[in-house]
Amino acid sequence: GEVVSSVDRAPQYRDVAYGYFGSALGHLSAPTPGGENAPLGPEIASVEHRWTEAATLLVSADIQSRYAPVTRVMLHYRAMFGEVVEVAMVDDGTLGDLVANDGIYAAQVPAGLAGAGEMIRYYVTADSEQELSQRAPFFADPLNSPEYFGTIIPDPTLQSDVPILHRFVENTRLMDLSRGTRAAVFFDGEFYDNVFIRIRGGTARDWPKKSYKIEFNDDHLFVMRPDLPRVDEIDVNATYTDKSYLRARLTSDFQDRVGTPSPITQHIQMRQNGQYYSLALMVEQPDQDFLIRNGLDPEGSLYKANPGATYLRSSVSAFEKKTRDDEDRSDVTALLTGLQLKGEELERFLFDNINLPAQINFIATNVITQNIDATDKNHFLYRDTNGTGEWQMLPWDLDLTFGPDALNTDVILADQNTRGASNPTAVHPFLGAVATPLHVGKINMLIDGIVTTPRTREMLLRRIRTLADEYLGADYFEQQIDEMVALIKDEVPLDRAAWGTRAHFGGRALDYQDVAQLIKDQYLARRLPYLTEYHVTGGVGIPTEQPLEATLLIDADIQFNPASGNPGDEYFTLHNPNAYSVDVSGWKISGATESTLAAGTVIGAGERLYLTRNVAAFRARTTGPGGGQSLFVQGYATNLSDVGGELTVTNRAGQIVATARYGNSIVPADASNLRISEIMYVPRDGNVSLGELPGSGESYEFVELTNISDDVIELGGVQFTDGVSFHFDAQQLGPRQSVLVVGNRAAFNSRYGDEILLALGQDEAGNVTNEFTGKLANSGDTLRVLDQAGSLIQEIAYGVAAPWPTRASAGGSSLVWRDGSAAFDATDWRASATLDGTPGSSEAVSPTNVVINELRVRGVDGAEDQVELYNSTWQTIDLGGWYLTDDLADLPRYQLPAGTRILPHNYLVISEGELGSGLSASNGDRLWLLRPDEQGRPQHIADFVEFGPVDGNATIGRWPDGVGAVVVLASDTIGGRNTGVVVRGTGDFNNDQRIDAIDLDLICAAIRQDDNSPSFDLNGDNDVTQDDLNVMVHDLMKTSFGDANLDGVFDSQDLVALMQAGTYEQDVDAVWSTGDWDCDGRFTTRDLVLAYQGLV
Q1: Is 120 helix (H, G, I), strand (E, B) or coil?
Q2: Assigned fold of 18-152
Q3: What distances in angstroms separate CA 1078 from CA 174, 1003, 1081, one per listed residue?
Q4: Can you tell me the distance from the alpha carbon of 704 to that of 402, in angstroms, rounded to the nearest whole number?
Q5: By three-state DSSP, how is residue 751 classified?
Q6: Which residues contact 734 (CB under 8 A, 6 or more apart)?
Q7: What is the rounded CA–CA span in Å between residue 42 and residue 295?
Q8: Model confidence over 890-909: pLDDT tens digits?
Q9: How far apart (Å, rounded) are the C-alpha atoms in residues 544 and 546?
Q10: Which residues pair with 941 in a beta bridge?
């Protein structure tokens, strides 16, 4: 149905009403269900602070009345946990207030209230008549909202190579309890008030140095790192068990590097109430934010494995549910039940229910780092419930790694020499299996199932060997240790001095450099030969190093066009013909589909890997290969072309190890089948709030190529030689399929996702790349594409001025090829109507129904600028949530309130005060009107206007009204129909030094409205009629009616462009370029008759 009204809500709080009073929207003073809403108090739009040279804190607040005049504004501040002091805020140009009566109130917090590194907190209240008030922060929920804004007093002596986290706790005894207390945090320049802090951990609760969990308020989440989304909680872990301070971070960084999702771990200096506290580890919490960061579905089942999580069926209560709270634990119960199976039944269960690559990678990383505490606790368990249905373990609590066999980290074990050890099995590769627990009862039936099932055991052993060779054998950990020691070496003495003998477990008191060296000498030096020699000739049978020439085969039976039409029936297989297992982690599939094999993917000797578009659907197949057959299955991203293509397997060194063709024959790319179809040469800058990487727009440049034929084409050898440089490797492109060459893959993926087909090429070093070298010039450029033989496929010299689409040069729109045209000239291209373009897909072109129709630009007397919107249809249009901005770097500059409507053929006026900024008369300006997508993000460019410098107090607008070009109007008609234009010269009515379609539209408007201005009277008969239009078309412009693109002739190119415009016989306004040649404002059969007859 039609959306009648929608609201973009501010943060909501328990027992606090939210709604409209008049046209204003906000938190209401009292709930009034079924009755008239209570009046709203003043709006505190923003609050800011800054330190002055006099060491006072200047606080300013933007406050506007919404119902009654503002009568009083107060600043309430306190130093640390002292008494709250009130002081009046003023808007009279004094006491730090810069401009009087502008709605910006200011007050100062005096200097000397607290010491360096201590906190100052404050809130602002605003009162209006009728006893209406407002507070910022709103502080509606004492348990889930900030009470104060704040900062800390600068301390110029405070220097550290690691980030500093300041925490402020009034009663520190309470934070050492499970029930916790409220606190404040300052980190990386941002203040977080009224957060919750409590002790965390099990055994660690009784240690002198404790670990803590900090939970942040829903309306002010925490920035752990600038390149990551905000999170709702973090863990601050002590280093009591680790004298090196390194083990947890070493392990986390390693796991993340090799493809096991692991919590981000970083060293921080923690300060408490202005004083040094400790060197600690800030650790990401494995929650839904963590899942999203690692590409896992946040709606999947997530459990924390608490002590006793042995994966026996009786251990189900040890699994703490973290997601899908509306469900019971029947899913994990089914997992534990299946893991009790034996033999072939267990094998079938593992292959159908466990994410084997992820699980094997997880176990292998624990073997490399010798994690002794991750079997029956200290990990998370995740299921891709809505996808494959597969389970995997995720890491957590990584301090007991790299040598210890218990909590006392002075003991370091790494190999078979375990005499005198408390737990000698700590070193075993199969730690946690029933036969090799750390101690009695510390088992894990999932690990046991993997190592006792021959096929999965073979996979695990190969993966262990790969990681041992590539990391233990390559000085990776030694280099990491050296870098981390250099980072924290100045912090360690501070921590030791603060905690003395309580800093760590007892044992030897060694110099810090010696402690770190012990990991190198006693663990790393011994672990490598233990895994790559001792367990090769004996032990568990780890294989020898994988041969560099290891190859695979793509089986000939490629199911690319299943008769069922079900993507789950589409698959192909990789066959390992070797007598040894092959680790294919990170190997790439390219050509007819794009995929990177998951970390931990190992194909056993003589075994096969089934690759399919939909893993769950594949396992549900009723005939042929499917579930219940112990098949190794993995998904890929895009469907195979149902016509034909080629598949290529490339190893991590970039060497092709297998190829296969299927379906129709493949033809080389040339000028008959390949076109540049989209060019993004002025992208907007990255916007972190939209999930994009920060940085300049250049990183988001792309060029799209499309196969315009019905054949599969081979791109290998095709190259860009001008504009940008790129050389295609072997890659197939299906009929009508598109491929992208991008400026920066990471940036591109952050904006458009990672499912768009990217070009495969090589950089100068021979590495596989999807990125071109060079930049697309914002001022216009020439792109040249050659085929494998060096013959020209296409050359485009795009420009930024008409007849090229000028919106593309303004930013945010791409150049899009008009499908079916020659694709060489400006008239073959249009600006995308979708913000950021449509790489990898086509764009439906719809008429613009709401336009920016008139702009009142005030550059002299300071009067308020205004923007007029016009609805050209016969339907009421809901504009709630639409965006209006003059700066694409600030997309949410102004968002029309929910419920904003514009009636048929009516006008809506928006003032400068609503926009938040005015328009530039002296420099000219641009303005975008953007329609949101279903998620409320700006997506469709409903309209765009651009104007150059104009005289102060000018009014510019569309002429003809609602459809024409933007010109300087003869009079101010804001809120009504535009009535005329300032004209000069003969034929060049808008004085832009050329006669073009805009001038045709202007004379048509004059004819329709009986405007007999002399400038339009081209034949001198003192009457502006169709006769003047004939003079304009035939005599001045030397063309004919029907020449929509003004290339001098009415031909098929005009008809193609017109049909794409979609205005023929539609009840929408049209102009010359969209078919209105008889000047009646519509494109009808009459216009076509006119085009073929030649005269009005």
Answers
A1: strand
A2: Immunoglobulin-like (2.60.40)
A3: 82, 11, 8
A4: 49
A5: helix
A6: 592, 641, 643, 644, 645, 707, 712
A7: 43
A8: 877 789 999 999 999 999 99
A9: 6
A10: 930
pLDDT for 92-143, tens place per residue?
Answer: 988 777 788 889 999 999 999 999 999 999 999 999 887 788 999 999 899 9
Share of the chain above pLDDT 70, in %: 94
- Of 622, 408, 635, residue with least CA distance to 504: 408
State which amino acid sits at residue 820: G
CA atoms of 570 and 419, how far apart (whole Å): 55
> 445-452 and 356-369 helices cross at what angle (nearest 10)?
100
pLDDT tens digits, one per residue of 104-116: 999 999 999 999 9
Beta strands in 357-488 (DSSP E): 379-383, 391-395
Find the angle CA(251)-CA(547)-CA(460) to the nearest 5 degrees: 40
Closest CA to 208 of 539, 547, 504: 504
Instruction: Give the DSSP letter string of 520-565.
Output: IIIIIHHHHHIIIIIHHHSTT-PPPPPPTT---EE-S--B-S-TT-
Do 666-831 and 553-663 have the same topology in CATH?
Answer: yes
CATH 2.60.40, applies to 846-982: yes
At 693 the three-state DSSP class reads coil
- Of 636, 663, 660, 658, nearest to 646 by C-alpha is 660
CA distance 974 to 668: 58
**What integer is the mean pLDDT of 920-948?**
87
Read off the pLDDT of residues 304-363 as tens digits, 9 standing for 90 and up: 999 999 999 999 999 999 999 999 999 999 999 999 999 999 999 999 999 999 999 999
90 beta partners: 106
Q: Which two tokens stand for residue 195?
A: 């957060």
Query: 954 by DSSP, 3-state: which?
Result: strand
- Contact present, 676 and 785 (Cβ < 8 Å): yes
Least Cα distance to 472 among 547, 556, 529, 546 occurs for 529
Task: Read off the tokens for 653.
Answer: 């060194």
- Cβ atoms of residues 701 and 685 within 8 Å: no
Identify the pLDDT of residue 505. 80
Assess if CATH 3.30.1340.30 describes domain 666-831.
Answer: no
- Annotation: CATH topology of 553-663: Immunoglobulin-like (2.60.40)
State how far the Cα of 713 lies from the Cα of 732, in Å rounded to an integer. 6
Distance CA 862, CA 870 (A): 25
Angstrom distances, CA of residue 227 to CA of 215, 293, 483: 20, 11, 21
Would you state the structure tokens that stand for residue 238, as one six-digit string?
């002590």
Domain assignments of the chain as residue spans, ordered by start: 18-152, 164-238+262-284, 296-475+517-537, 553-663, 666-831, 846-982
Distance (Å, whole) CA 841 – CA 830: 15
Task: Estimate the crossing angle of helix 476-488 against helix 247-258, to 10 degrees.
Answer: 130
Cβ atoms of residues 758 and 746 within 8 Å: no
562-618 pLDDT, tens digit per residue, is: 877 776 689 999 999 999 999 999 999 998 888 999 999 999 999 999 999 999 999
For position 1034, what pLDDT does the model report? Answer: 79
Alpha helices per DSSP H over 229-342: 247-258, 288-293, 330-338
| Cα–Cα distance for residue pair 400/366, rounded to 1 Å | 10
Distant-in-sequence, close-in-space partners of 517: CB < 8 Å, separation ≥ 6: none
pTM of the entire predicted model: 0.65
Helical H runs in 817-959? 912-915
- Closest by CA to 859, choosing from 927, 928, 950, is 950
Please state, in angstroms and rounded to a whole number, the distance separating the CA atoms of residues 612 and 632: 11
Is 517 in contact with 419 (CB distance < 8 Å)? Answer: no
Q: Please say whether the dihedral angle defined by the alpha carbons of residues 798, 802, 804 and 810, taken in this order, is positive or negative.
A: positive
Beta bridge partners of 26: 19
